[in-house]
Design goal:
- One of its GO terms (biological process) is cell division.
- Keywords: Cell cycle, Cell division, Membrane, Transmembrane, Transmembrane helix.
- It holds the Pfam family SPOR.
- This protein is α+β, with helices and mostly antiparallel strands and about 180 residues long.
- It has a domain of about 80 residues: 2-Layer Sandwich (Alpha-Beta Plaits), CATH 3.30.70.1070.
- It is about 30% helix and about 20% strand.
- The protein has a four-stranded antiparallel sheet.
- Strand 2 and strand 3 form a beta hairpin.
- It is flat, with a radius of gyration of 49 Å.
């Protein structure tokens, strides 16, 4: 048999509406508070006693030294040395270094930025490179795959100068330039 609990009204008695007793009110643990206060007071007195015992130490015994039979004579201190001569010499010293002349490199560097099948595309990239302030060349090359138009910068004598130009191109949005070298002697 089904019962309807929704419309049911609680009975009017002094108990909780659901029939359970209300939870007792919790009291503050007075015993724990007393123990905590005793522990704090004991700790403070201990610190106070340690502090007083450290400040009231017994004076150290003094040793009695018998008088010496012979008076001790002290030697006079040596004269203060002058500024060493090498310091004055180093202030005015000039150093000459012989640097051997470096051999001229037998390599030249070249940078290729792109290769195209169409000459017009290569000329467009050459114009973009010209706007950065660098000069480039379009070289035609034939290979197994047909005709290619390469956009090339250089030749450069040092790798540092080639890298400098490559970084300039990267800052202007032209990426993918590759550096290569060949032995020209």
């Amino acid at each position: 048999m089904a019962r309807d609990y929704v419309g049911r009204k609680p009975k009017n008695n002094k108990k909780h509406p659901r029939g359970k007793k209300p939870a007792p009110k919790r009291r503050f643990p007075l015993g724990a508070l007393v123990l905590l206060l005793i522990a704090i007071i004991a700790f403070v007195t201990l610190l106070y006693k340690i502090n007083n015992s450290a400040t009231k130490r017994a004076p150290l015994p003094t040793a009695v030294v018998p008088a010496a039979s012979k008076p001790v004579t002290l030697k006079p201190l040596p004269k203060q040395p002058k500024v060493p001569a090498y310091i004055e010499e180093l202030e005015n010293k000039q150093v000459k270094v012989k640097v051997p002349k470096q051999k001229e490199s037998t390599h030249q560097y070249q940078m290729q930025c792109a290769s195209f099948r169409n000459r017009d595309d290569a000329d467009k990239l050459k114009a973009q490179i010209a706007f950065t302030g660098l000069s480039s060349q379009v070289r035609r090359s034939e290979g197994k795959n047909g005709v290619w138009y390469r956009v090339v910068l250089g030749p450069y004598k040092t790798r540092r100068s080639a890298d400098s130009d490559r970084h300039l191109l990267q800052r202007n949005g032209i990426n993918g330039c590759q550096l290569w070298y060949w032995n020209w002697k």
